[in-house]
Design a protein that fits this description.
CATH superfamily of the largest domain in chain A: Glycosidases
Strand content of chain A: 15-25%
CATH class of the largest domain in chain A: Alpha Beta
Oligomer: homotrimer
Catalytic activity (chains A, B, C): Hydrolysis of terminal non-reducing beta-D-galactose residues in beta-D-galactosides
CATH architecture of the largest domain in chain A: Alpha-Beta Barrel
Helix content of chain A: 25-40%
InterPro entries (chains A, B, C): Beta_galactosidase_Trimer, Class_I_gatase-like, GH, Glyco_hydro_42, Glyco_hydro_42_N
Largest interface: A-B, 47 and 44 residues
EC number (chains A, B, C): 3.2.1.23
Structural class of chain A: alpha/beta
Largest sheet of chain A: 7 strands, mixed
Number of helices of chain A: 16
Family (chains A, B, C): Belongs to the glycosyl hydrolase 42 family.
Shape of chain A: globular
CATH topology of the largest domain in chain A: TIM Barrel
Protein name (chains A, B, C): beta-galactosidase
Distance between the termini of chain A: 39 Å
Radius of gyration of chain A: 25 Å
Number of strands of chain A: 18
Strand order of the largest sheet of chain A: 11-10-12-13-18-17-16
């Protein structure tokens, strides 16, 4: 079975619409409806006053119709009363501007009041529906992605650093604080990377992104613990993009099924996202939790299905009359079911009834690292064109499939080919892993821009020299012992090939995959 | 008679210049001088300490020369002492940044201290000059246009919403608050659309712009009430542009003469502004209160005069030596009257001596709505190219004149042709008005993008189907019963023509007026 | 002898590296190392707790090797503990955002706590090293360049204005405050040009930039006074660029040697910077304190050396592993001395051993004024393309050398040719100086945009008419008594030539140097 469905927000409509919804869902072949995302202001209309009646009815109605429920905790958008009661739980941006209610995701994940209120509503939801037979999957929160720089975050950041580094000397060393007089004498002197006079410290910036990811992960784990009594598996939906303050490779270890939201324009990008989700999931299933309904629904779903998706879900079931996403496409458009979109989606639903998730076995691995993407976004670096994500996608297109897109820390044994384009940030463990892989007989491709700094953003000159059979001085090569396979039009080497142990390492002097084959 | 003149700010010059000014005004044919805009810091140099002596002299001098005065209340720019005394009356932007003195228009129209001080100075001015024989026109404030998000505004916004909606249920319904958990349990939870995490609620954004317009209108009315003892008519000058937080159609009901400030580059835009001002004025006069003096003054004035302007005024009489508009053109340039600009303006003044405002009768109406413009500026919508204002102007150029540019709520009876391009926002009353017009035998043109949402920014699928003789699904047409007059190069319909009652409705599938004829 | 060396920050490396550093410096011909810039957090690791041991060792080591030291006061970057202790000494931007530690230069030069702490550390440094034989030069601070808008600055600005103008009447007159009701009744009402509603007052904006320069100069002088017991000369390094809040012409009177930091892309810009530094220095020496090391070091140094540089120094000696400038080029790159950059720099060092600074005598002067640059950046002016700096550089390229680039207040007697392109701001003293020069037989070139306003940004119509032999009305010319040397393609004059006293004045109706010859 393949999950098929989408976000179902019946609270936006009169109760009378629900029966139509269920009838149309059955017509469309929907077997999973995501319910309750952003429903906090309906579930707890006033502080401490809960109303689950409407949700009981929705879940019962879906269950009677045989439609499974992906039940969401509503914590991604606290209600207006929360903002009014707890102004200090609102997020603060780099400039010190405290945001207010008016959109979604407006909270600080480190604010005590937010932690208390969000875990309370999740606990109530969990207690009530842990054993509800409709619940096939728990969906914690929605697209974790709020970065904050408030004083609660500052305090939590200091605790996180203290655990990470142990003492100030280690922090000063990791952050290279002797540059520009940034040496701290106590963790108490550390601040989030708020607005400052000029360029910030790249190690501080990267650690803050790691910290934000971990702080949100702690919130996710706290919610997951409240769901432990339910037999249903647990996930959260991953948003993709350079802005995302979540290290998905790490988070993927914490979910029962990897779920991605994907809104690309091209099939190649769908293929990349699918291979990435599968790479994060490893031996667990993955699904497409959100994408845009369209009159090309069958063709759009294919790249995901062909790469092992266990579910094809949309945002959202029925188009919203109002609100910020009123023009977002929906499975049931504003004009109703007598529309090309609904017909196409129903056709896809019918097709999926007899399909199962496919198993994909890849012999090529493409390394992709969100921490590297973050490191490359630091303002002290020149703007890069193309950027990291674009380079990775170009390589993905250039390589012959199937391809596993993997975190650099993933086991590489067994792959015929491993490619690490522009992997700027490289820890000692990844250095070892690549050498083990190549030394053991693997084929490894590295590019310009790979392994320039360690995990603390400190420059590591010569770090690849043994692998590539040449000495790198900036972008230039000297002392070449490897074979020059191709040259640039100006005569400089384009591709080196070096025997390393039992394997072969190719080094590309550009980030372009043009000379791969 | 046609008013001719401009802003006269003699306080910027030694008293000795005034005699020259009057002599030159007479030479130029000036019959109306706008005095006192931005003169607060001269009229009340210290809190509660008033000095009208210099203004007495200026008014007397002009009167003796037979030059009328358009006397302005100085409330658009409080003096520095006001800022120092009342920091909490300074405007606050979306990010919570409180602005300070340093330019003009720096006040919050809902701040109690500003209301008190501004009405006091206006009251003093009104008492002193209500019967001054020079005063031909009162000019309240200047280009109302300050948006603020402070706590005074938040409180006033809640009162405004409470009056508009009555109870929270109606607000929740109008604002579609069930999307993203924005349901309020009390008006007290509502905030202005301050900086928030992501996209705001379009209904909240639009209501805030309406509220800001109404808050400034209340200030205008309070000033107008203080002028009630004077026989002179009352106006305020309307700035044009997408940033303007004033619903001029509504404000036009509150002035004795519609006065616009217009700084375009092309004659077509002058024609549009003139037809728009006349459409706002309906049966009342309208005038050009500000435009830029130039050596082409006669040609520049013609589009306004030909469309019924009762006055041609400039900003400003004599160029300012210093200040932020020191390089703004003036009737008397920096180099004095022996200049092409002054000579041309004098020639125009001479021509106008014997002219009267023309009466314009149009059989074509173009509907134009600033609330639609605001609604289309909401960030949840894709950036539109061309934007609403540009589309309206293109239609104005494409149509044969004379044309009345009208608010959509204006009576349409009697027009041969009514065009409603891209009228995204459409209330039930306007829907009725268009059907009454077409059903009664009128010719109506609608375009893509028209009537997509109601007055609360809620999607209204199928709202035009009966008028256009087809079913609209997004941008596509099905079930066409109308005649297809033109097709796009790809074969899709470009123009439909549908009989509706006794009239004819054309629907353009683009916003482009190309296929009109 | 010519100084040769660069910034040496040994605190970023283990002490074991120092011996290598000295050995390599000797190999490279380094004779001056700038030590201690940004070392405050090492010199005073906790408030009041000083550690000079490591610096003693560094200075002794360098001295033993015969390498001179340019010893820097560390005041440009207070340590993290300072930020934590004195949050109110952090700079505040126009929007009222208080910046925090995280970069460099994060302090307010008017904050009492910063003044006290920075002068204390400088005093300790001065006491300890006043007579150290290694110290050849004192380097106060680093690239003064922090603008702040906090309340300490507001108070200091009012004192500065009170001294400059004496009373409010003079301030009101200079600032043209009758425009937009900005007339102050007391200096207490004046604010820094913080965020405001619309365009600011150009005279206020310019005076604020002058005040910021003066406030930093007061800090520089206070530090210099603490160094008075040392026989070594004193300098500070000048950053170049439109953002810089320092009037270098004035500051150049306060240093023993003018020192510039220059990071251009083209040799023409290096030539301009060198002629500018020499123009600021007049009869004193000047040096290149910072530029970027490269494999073209010899060619890059030549434009400076040919124009009289007394020193060629780089930022920095050894590349930083971490921090915001980890990718900045260095004399010893990340890959070590066996690199083209180090080899080329060593070759230059060898060449310089036998050279002395050349003496330059120029017969052409190009007037260049940072206050004019600031005035032309005011937002009430149209964006200019090309901007002031670009225009000046174009003229520099077009003129035959040698050229002195001079402040407009410099003595002009003796030059064959003086060019004042786009010198928008012109004081009465400069007006007199130009007339004295031309009247005394000099050749003077003026361009469009020259002498449009006085030192208070007030328009001065006709200010050039006597010099150019024509009447300027805006950009147009009438009453031409001068000879028209060239015409534009449309027939309007391009170049006028006018006899003025014993001299000749050419006026260009564009800012382009095309018609110069």
């Amino acid at each position: 079975m393949i999950y098929f469905g989408g976000d179902y927000n019946p609270e936006q409509w009169p109760a009378s619409v629900r029966k139509d919804d269920v009838e149309l869902m059955l017509r469309a072949g929907v077997n999973l409806a995501t319910v309750g995302v952003f429903s906090w202001s309906r579930l707890e209309p006033r502080p401490g006053e809960f109303d689950f009646g409407w949700l009981d009815e929705v879940l019962d109605l879906l269950h009677e119709a045989g439609i499974g429920v992906c039940l969401a905790t509503p914590t991604a958008s606290p209600p207006p009363w929360f903002t009014k009661l707890h102004p200090d739980a609102m997020p603060v941006n780099r400039d010190g501007v405290r945001l207010t209610h008016g959109s979604r995701d407006t909270y600080c994940v480190n604010a005590p009041a937010y932690l208390a209120s969000s875990l309370t509503v999740t606990n109530r939801l969990a207690s009530r529906y842990a054993d509800h037979p409709a619940v096939r999957l728990w969906h914690i929160h929605n697209e974790y992605g709020t970065t904050c720089y408030c004083d609660s975050c500052a305090a939590a950041f200091r605790r996180w650093l203290s655990l990470r580094y142990g003492d100030e000397a280690a922090l000063n060393d990791a952050w290279s604080t002797d540059f520009w007089s940034q040496r701290v004498s106590s963790f108490d002197e550390v601040l989030p990377p708020r607005a400052t006079q000029y360029l910030g410290n790249p190690a501080q910036l990267l650690d803050y992104r790691r910290f934000v990811s971990d702080a949100m992960l702690a919130h996710f784990r706290a919610q997951r613990a409240l769901l432990a009594d339910s037999p249903a598996p647990v996930t959260t939906n991953f948003a993709l993009g350079g802005w995302v303050p979540v290290d998905h490779a790490q988070w993927s270890r914490e979910v029962d099924i990897v779920a991605i939201d994907d809104y690309p324009a091209a099939d190649e990008d769908r293929a990349f996202a699918a291979d990435l989700a599968r790479g994060w999931a490893r031996d667990r299933p993955w699904m497409l939790m959100e994408h845009a309904p369209s009159a090309a629904a069958r063709a759009v779903a294919e790249p995901y299905l062909a790469r092992g998706a266990a579910g094809i879900l949309y945002f959202q079931w029925r188009a919203s009359r109002g609100g910020a996403e009123q023009w977002h496409p929906a499975m049931v458009p504003h004009e109703g079911p007598d529309t090309p979109v609904f017909q196409e989606i129903s056709a896809l639903g019918a097709e999926l009834r007899d399909r199962e998730p496919v198993t994909v076995t890849a012999s090529t691995a493409l390394l992709y690292d969100e921490q590297t993407m973050w490191a490359l976004q630091a303002p002290h670096l020149p703007a890069r064109d193309p950027d990291y994500d674009t380079v990775a996608r170009r390589w993905h297109r250039a390589l012959d499939g199937p391809i596993d897109v993997l975190p650099p820390t993933a086991p590489l044994h067994g792959y015929d080919l491993v490619v690490a384009p522009m992997l700027y940030l490289m820890s000692a463990a990844v250095h070892r892993s690549l050498r083990d892989y190549a030394g053991g007989g693997g084929r490894l491709i590295l590019t310009a821009g790979t392994a320039q700094v360690d995990e603390h953003c400190r420059v590591t000159p010569g770090a690849l020299d043994d692998l590539i059979g040449a000495r790198l001085i900036g972008p230039d090569l000297t002392d070449i012992t490897a074979t020059v396979l191709h040259r640039l039009p100006d005569g400089r080497p384009a591709v080196l090939e070096n025997r390393y142990g039992a394997g072969i390492v190719r080094y590309m002097t550009t980030q372009d995959p043009g000379f791969t084959h």
